[in-house]
Amino acid sequence: MKKIIFLFAAGTFVLASSCKKQEAKMENTPINPAAQITEAPMPQTATPPADGKYPVMEFETKEHDFGKINAGSKVVYTFNFKNTGEADLIISNAVGSCGCTVPEYPKEAIKPGESGKMKVSFNSAGKNGQQQKTVTITANTAAGKEMLTIKASITPVTGIAQ
Hints:
Layout: H1 2-27, E1 57-59, E2 63-70, E3 74-83, E4 91-96, E5 101-104, E6 115-123, E7 129-139, E8 145-155
Parallel strand pairs: 2-8
Antiparallel strand pairs: 1-3, 3-6, 4-7, 5-6, 7-8
InterPro entries: DUF1573 (IPR011467), Ig-like_fold (IPR013783)
Organism: Flavobacterium noncentrifugens
Protein name: DUF1573 domain-containing protein
C-alpha cells in the first residue's frame, strides 16, 4: 500500500513540475505580432445597387441525394442554375461544409437570362452512415448567400481486396 501511495505522489509531482516547465517556456517565448489572433471581419452584406436591380440564382434543385455509396467513393453532382434577375450574377466564393465537399463555380459574370453550373464533388473516405453536407455560395444576390445540400448513405466496404 505504501508503494502505491509513493508512486501516486511521485507521478503527481512529475506532472506538476512538467506543467510549470512548459509555462516557463511559454513565458520566455517572444510573441510574433503577425501571428496574433484577431477578430474575424464582419461579413459584408450586399450593398443595394443604385438601380435597385439584383441578380437571382434560380436552381433546378438545391438538394441532391447520392443514395447508397461505398465508403471511399468519390461522387460528383452538377447543380444547374439560371440568373432570373435583372443584373449580372457574380459568384465571389463557394465553400463546402467540410474538406470532403468541394464546389467548382463559374468565375465569370452570368448575365440575366443565362445559365450556369456548380459542380460539387464529395469524397466519402473516412465517412460512415448517413451524411449531409452543404455548400455556401457568396454572390451579389439580394440575400448575399445561397445554400446547396448533398446527402449520401455510406456503406462500409467489407472484405479486403487482394
